[in-house]
Amino acid sequence: MSTPGALRQDDPAERDRTGALDPREGIELLLRDLRTSPRGLTEREAARRLTVHGPNTLTRRGGRRWPRELARQFTHPLALLLALAAVLAAVSGAPALAVAIVAVIVLNAMLAFAQEQQAEKAVEALAEFLPEQATVLRDGVRRDVEAVALVPGDVLVIEEGGGISADARLLSGGVEVDLSALTGESEPVFRSADLVDTDGDLLQARDLLFSGTVCTGGQGEATVTATGMRTELGRIAALSQRTRREESPLEAQVKRAARLIAVIAVGVGLAFLPLGLAAGLSVAAAVSFAIGLLVANVPEGLLPTITLALAAGVRDLARRGALVKRLSAVETLGSTTVVCTDKTGTLTENRMRVTAVWTPDGEMALDPPPEPTGLPEAVRVLARAAATCTSAHPEAGHADPTESALLDLADLLGTPCRPGQRDLDRRALYRFDPRIKLMTTADAVDDTVVLHTKGAPEEVLVHAGRLLDRGRERPLTPADRTAAVQAVGALAARGLRVLAVARRVLPPGRLPPVRREDAERDLCLLGVVAMADPPRAEVAHAIGLAHRAGITVHVVTGDNGMTAAAVAGQVGIGHRGSRIVTGTELASLSDERLDTLLARGEEVIFARTSPEAKLRIADALRAEGQTVAMTGDGVNDAPALRSADIGVAMGRSGTDVAREAATMVLTDDNFATIVAAVEAGRRTYDNIRKFIVYIFAHAVPEVVPFLVFALAGGAIPLPLTVMQILAVDLGTDTLPALALGRERGEPGLMDRPPRPRGEKVIQARMLARAWGFLGLISACLVMAGFLLTLGAAGWHPGDPTGPGTALHLAYRQATTVAWLGIVFCQIGTAFAARTDRASLWSVGVLGNRHLLAGIGFSLAFAAVIVYLPWLQGIFGTASLGPAQLAVVLPFPIVVWGADELRRALVRRRHPAAVPEAPAPVPAPAVAPRPAVEETAHHPLPVLLARHGWSEHRLQHALGVSEHAAAEIVAHARRVAAGHGRHGP
Ligand code: ATP
């Protein structure tokens, strides 16, 4: 309770300043202190408080983290190795080399720092694409606002799946909340307005809610007591500090490789020592060359370049509507082999429209809409009941499309149902439960309460015992059930989403049952409504692309199998055959049989699935070694989203809980975006391989000249100075490497099978190309340029070239040609590395503007080093004449051309194994009848069998074989004996 006197509670200004308030004081007192009411604040007051309290965001503590981040760039093992080299250079009497190495360290640290900052920003910026929303009452009306605009005194409306964005005290209702973000406890806890705790740990108080937690069930209203840094989340300093970015498997792999190469570089440096001494170098010169070689070959810039490429991938994905939460998701996406997608909203537009209804009088098409006059009464009653059994508020932007369609239908048929009045008449609500696929409301109609139920037809039929026929209720006969089942089948086969509607009129004065099971029994079937939800236009193309890319697409839906099969057929899913497996069948499948089913390569339509089934499917696929992307939107989908390699949540229609659990959030809820994301993932991974080839290639033309010098016993002078080697590291390589990270996708990117899981990013094939082909050609060219320049000046092997000799200028020019040769060869290598297989013409020779700019920078840097007199002194270069320049000019063309030829040969020898590209299957007029096995386990037939139908009767009513009918009955007995949810 508040302590009178400790705070002047009645002085709002004082309270505003201190922000202090006891959220556990009496509710009236709390509302008074917050100057609010259960109807919420007015808009104007909310705006005023926003300026007083500031936005509801966490300001980052320890904002100045960059000094530590920058320091880290100087202290990682490779940087320390370089520092050791600098110290060695200094003590061995080569101060210029030491300074140059320090310059390399500093430059690389700055670059790495800038790149990592960019990467972090890319991930952080994603939050702006999908601002957190909260539902509040303002002026007594529900409104969605951005969570940053919440202020103390606001009344939050909390629903299942929603995030809680401020600290609040429950005013009404009860909710289950996941407090794990605050307490680490993953079991949800129950919080209720009726459970008042006035002392003890604040986080355990049973009527308080906290920012950063999520509601996993129930509903309630709560008044905001604290926002921003004044929330418990804000107070827990550790939580408000950014946690360190997790390293992706790719980065870890490359780090290991970089360290291995550093060890090799040290080995090469050490090996050079005796060789250099034997070739006549002084100890000091040999040591400095050893150090130079080491520094040149340590790939210290590789890791930050990869991080930045992944960050560029994240940005690119965000632009396409896919927000990923971790850099590592970019690489995982590229290896996706299976996508499990739901149907509604992802494959379809999620714009429902009722196009037909069925009542005991028969089916009636509503497309085009009929005149309300002369409409059969049964249809009007059906439409009215369906619209009453909703909780949508389309006018406030809260509407499940299914329910909107039902409200629209009632409007269209002249029996409108206004949400405001509907809610006033509501006596009880049993929300839509995706497990039982039913929703029921209790509504006051005149003096009685009527229970309205709608949901999956087979579920409604289980609970229905009567039928409304010509305005009168009568028992539902087996013949009626057959008629209903056949009507549902016919509608579902057209790809329509079918809902049955039923009611039960309670005796006058009777209150709605407390237990859901008591509400959903003895129902009177009114009929069924069928709604169309057209497939998204772009999905068929995306499915075709996924198939070409070797990706299997399974549909996992809560909807009817026939409906799902029809929609799947329309978008091209099931080109290699598909089968429908219902939730009931899945439940009866052993793990081994499920594995066999999934291993067949067919695309499966898992219909009427429960959220648990999603988890089982994801686990089975992963156990098979597949890389699985799985979509989901509900609270119960969270475990499956976490279990899949890439959990995909819906940004528009999904719950906060699903978004929290997912790795990727689609801002447009569109299946095509998943495929686009896979493509972006593949491209990013390819690009990383491209610049690895590029960065690795220059080691050979740097090392070979030293080998030649050493093997010639000094008869051929050193073709490069140590400082020249460092110059390659310092200025000419970085930008083109970054530019290769921005390369566009190579043709055929989506025509090859997914990258096997666990395949290493650096492959022997790449090393062979970088070192054995591109590097070797470059080394030959560089040596040829060097020897040609020396030879032209009249040099013969063994002639002295040291300072003061006649050939010294020619020697300096020759080393300059060799150095420039490396720079030019790297230009050719950069162009070659742009594609792995395709010809450069097919991607556009000048298509990468970043690369052209990077090369421009390299050339300018080279010109400065060659022609600026004071740099000539440092790097041992000399100005070149046109004839000498002409030697190196063709180098890029030779290197690139050679690789172009090699790729052409590879293409000739191994034509691309393009998977057959199936054309999208045109929409079948009627979905194929499921195979015997599916029919046998389909809930409707099973239901009929459980209601005592004989095999003979099933055979006739459903048109199935004798064998199938026998299986249905056998299965029904098994279900009744063991697994039946509803019992026999
Ligand atoms: P998907 O998983 O592909 O998005 P879905 O949206 O059809 O499929 P659910 O929302 O779980 O899956 O719906 C499953 C079934 O439950 C529907 O086919 C329908 O029969 C029934 N249903 C859906 N929404 C409601 C609702 N608001 N009220 C009553 N029944 C509903």
TrEMBL record:
Its main location: membrane. The keyword Transmembrane applies. Residues 23-94 form the Cation-transporting P-type ATPase N-terminal domain. It is a multi-pass membrane protein. InterPro entries: ATPase_P-typ_cation-transptr_C (IPR006068), ATPase_P-typ_cation-transptr_N (IPR004014), ATPase_P-typ_cyto_dom_N (IPR023299), ATPase_P-typ_P_site (IPR018303), ATPase_P-typ_TM_dom_sf (IPR023298), ATPase_P-typ_transduc_dom_A_sf (IPR008250), ATPase_P-type_domA (IPR059000), Cation_transp_ATPase_P-type (IPR050510). It is found in: Cell membrane. It comes from the Bacteria. Keywords: ATP-binding, Cell membrane, Membrane, Nucleotide-binding, Translocase, Transmembrane, Transmembrane helix. Belongs to the cation transport ATPase (P-type) (TC 3.A.3) family. Type IIA subfamily. This is Cation-translocating P-type ATPase.
